[in-house]
Design brief:
Elements: E1 2-6, E2 13-24, E3 30-39, H1 41-91, H2 95-126, E4 135-138, H3 139-153, E5 171-174
Antiparallel strand pairs: 1-2, 2-3, 4-5
């Protein structure tokens, strides 16, 4: 028999296992019981804690899978632009087109490198190694690069992609 009892002295739940046997007289009548009571509260608490930790691990695993699925999509986007515009670069003879395609390739190379760097930084953070490296960069330029990349993804003819950047330069220093 396993019982859960709320203790009056500490108002906590305690778990006990009772193992008892009847004691009979010479006429086979039960005259008393002999038994053993074991407090298994600590074991039950450990079991409950393990179950909680298991749930946390399963949630973390689902979040990591979702993160990886999202990152693989985010990596494919600039990679597709690099491959596509590299092919166009080889096929065009116009110098203006070559320069435009090369600029798009370079910008997407930068986006891809930043994504990979972000993934590596995320893994460092998960491992408990946070390393801040403040550096200057032009937020207006980053906005323009991101806007161009998003505009290339916008394939729906019924959607108008609007990008408005009021700053020619916006230099910030941060990680």
């Amino acid at each position: 028999i396993q019982l859960k009892i709320k203790s009056s002295y500490d108002n906590e739940a305690h778990y006990y296992i009772f193992d008892e046997r009847p004691v009979k007289d010479e006429n086979n009548n039960i005259v008393s019981y002999f038994g053993l009571e074991r407090d298994v509260t600590e074991l039950i608490q450990i079991q409950l804690k393990l179950e909680e930790e298991k749930q946390k691990a399963q949630t973390a695993d689902k979040l990591k899978s979702a993160f990886l699925a999202n990152m693989s999509h985010e990596i494919r986007t600039p990679l597709n632009a690099i491959v596509g515009f590299s092919q166009l670069l080889c096929d065009t003879s116009s110098e203006d087109n070559k320069k435009e395609f090369a600029d798009i390739i370079l910008k997407n190379n930068d986006i891809l490198l930043r994504l990979i760097d972000d993934i590596l930084e995320e893994s460092k953070i998960e491992a408990g190694f946070i390393d801040f490296k403040n550096k200057q960069f032009d937020m207006a330029d980053n906005f323009s690069i991101l806007s161009l990349s998003l505009q290339e993804r916008c394939m729906n003819p019924n959607v108008e992609f609007i990008s408005s950047n009021p700053y020619k330069r916006c230099v910030v220093k941060c990680d």
